[in-house]
Design a protein that fits this description.
It contains 2 helices and no strands. With 72 residues, it is mainly α.
Length: 72
């Protein structure tokens, strides 16, 4: 009976250690992902600003007039 209790204890300890190990790996991975996320958000904001500027240029009436003159 002692052998089976010992084996059960080993299985339980191994399972708990595996769960803790996976949790710690997940926690480290999520931190790395968040660090990259801030950089991506900054790039996205910069791109949105550039698109707004381009939209202002394209929708400006003088731009359209210049295009018509150049096409003649």
């Amino acid at each position: 009976m002692v052998f089976f209790e010992f084996m059960l204890g080993v299985v339980i300890i191994t399972t708990i250690a595996s769960i803790i190990n996976n949790y710690l790996k997940f926690k480290l991975t999520s931190r790395d992902a968040l660090d990259g996320l801030d950089e991506r958000l900054n790039k996205l904001e910069d791109l949105e600003d550039r698109i707004k500027t381009l939209e202002k240029i394209i929708t400006d009436q003088n731009y359209d007039l210049e295009q018509k003159i150049n096409s003649l």
